[in-house]
Amino acid sequence: MRGTCLIYSSHNRCQHIHRDLIAERALQGLDNKRILLLPMSQTVNGGDERNRQQYETGTFDWYFKRFEQYGLEFVPFYWSSGLRRQDADLFWHLLYESQVVVLAGGSSELGLQRYKTLGAVFGNEPGRFGRILHERQSRGLLTVGFSAGADQLGEILSSSAHHRMDDSNAFGLARNVVTTLHHERGREGDLMQVASSFPHCMAFGLPNDSGLNIDQGRLPSGNFWQVIDFVVDRTWDIESEQWHVKTRQGVPIEHFGPRGEHWAFHGGEKMVRIESADHAYKAAFVTTPGGLTDFHGRSPAPFGSIEEVLAAH
After folding, report:
1. How far apart are CA 195 and CA 256, in angstroms?
2. Closest to 180 measured CA to CA, from 249, 197, 167, 268
3. What percent of the chain lies above the pLDDT cut of 70?
4. If we measure between CA atoms, which residue out of 107, 114, 173, 90 comes closest to residue 139?
5. Contact 9, 150 (CB under 8 A)
6. d(Cα 86, Cα 56) in Å, to the nearest integer?
7. Is the dihedral of CA 302, 307, 310, 313 positive or negative?
8. Coil, strand, or helix at residue 125?
9. The dihedral sign for the CA sequence 300, 301, 304, 307
10. Across the chain, which distance is largest between two alpha carbons, in Å?
11. Which among 41, 77, 255 is positioned nearest to 157, based on CA atoms?
12. Residue 73 clears pLDDT 80, i.e. is over it
């Protein structure tokens, strides 16, 4: 599967997610082999706008530098209250063209506000950042969300289930999906609260190190489709850091529905979702060892593959 939206939670730079799904994807680029990192969600430290953004960059830079010999270009772009129009023009160009864009960690709400402010100040279009992300998706380019960035690429910020926000609408590259990050045993209640707060979304708890590799679009019928590949990465094996890597302790990606329905994904499963334009019809199917299973009814599906589901709708 060639996803266009990867949202994930990790402790460090686990190999499968960062090498196979991010670095290798950038290296496949024909026009460029660039990873654009956006640490714009980081807060200001003692009046220094760049300090925490540069620290965030350093947590990625050491890993991606090992791929420079193959042509990988790693470019960070920092938010600043003093950005000039020529800076913004370069930013929009990099955002549109880069093979891979990574929205990094920090404050989900602050970063979302900054991304929307950039469009309002430089172009009188508050939704410009999100529009470009969706254009990237339609062109088959990959946008990645890590930590706060994962929250921002879903339908709505998960933290808005716990406290009121003036603007919690995220970018929807993972349509009708909401996630909690750094999920672990004992946090099921948080996930269930998110699920009950946003019943129109599927809520997933992502432990370190795991993610959702997603592609989506609209079928000729007008129906929306979405395929989710559940990624569980157990490659980070530094012994002193094992406590932080919950997937190595057997913690799965968990889903709770608004009425307490529960699924656990251990990696390798895929889900296909269909929704009509008027939202009257919704269906979802999951790959299991016995074939496709109806997600809601937990019964065998009348389809042999994800391709058959898409063709039938």
Report:
1. 6
2. 197
3. 100
4. 173
5. yes
6. 24
7. negative
8. coil
9. negative
10. 59
11. 41
12. yes
